[in-house]
Amino acid sequence: MRRHAFVAALLAVATAAGTQLPTGTANAAKSSLNVTSIRVHNLIVVGGSCRNIDITARHNGPTHNDFDMDLDIDVWRGRKYVGSAYVYDDRPGRVVGDYFWCPFLDGLGKFRAGPSEVDWYNWGRRYSSGSFRDGTRDSFWVKQGSRTKVFVDRTRHRVTFTPRAQYYSVNRSRWRSWEGHRVVIERRLATGQWKRVARTRAGHATTVFSPKRHAWRAVTLASSNTARSRSGVERI
Q1: What residue ranges in 7-66 does DSSP mark as E strands?
Q2: Which of 87, 122, 157, 202 is most buried, judging by how many CB atoms fall within 10 Å of its CB?
Q3: Are 168 and 45 in contact (CB under 8 A)?
Q4: Residue 39 pLDDT > 60, yes or no?
Q5: Mind giving me the DSSP string for 36-49?
Q6: Between the ranges 5-19, 115-129, 189-203, where is the mean pLDDT highest?
């Protein structure tokens, strides 16, 4: 439970009474208190609605229940400031929250989270609090989803593949055909590794000579704004 209202009331009473809240502890804590890492999940877009992107910030502060920390994290796409993420749900040694991403406001691409405005509160026997700006950063991607499917026809020792591909268009809010996009046909070896046997394009039939039965799959080579996707594995 957040206790910011209590903090405001405490400060107001202390000011009215001319009381000095303990500052030595606050100054000492500030000198050693840091955000040690920020981790932001990537997002693959497969629908037109806004989404919450999970964020976890770790710190080197106390892990007992009397210590709280909040972060207001700047979010950038390139040189453009797009908003902030409020991370406030305290756990031992970390704080979790999210960034509210919307397709028509934030767009696609590579984002940066950080720097942050940090507020902390120690609710122990000697109350102390403080704030500072922290430069810890992390980057994350928001990309359009993609999906593939492979149609297979085998005639004796020849296998014909016809891959199909689609991507989710954020601008049009629907799945669109990705005909002509480059794909790779791969064969799984006995070692479990995958070997490339042909390059082709989505929608184009490609024939491969295959004297034995193998497991195959197709992989899309995604563009910079689209996530890489794989078709299911088939044994033919």
Answers
A1: 35-40, 43-45, 51-59
A2: 87
A3: yes
A4: yes
A5: EEEEE--EEE-SSS
A6: 115-129
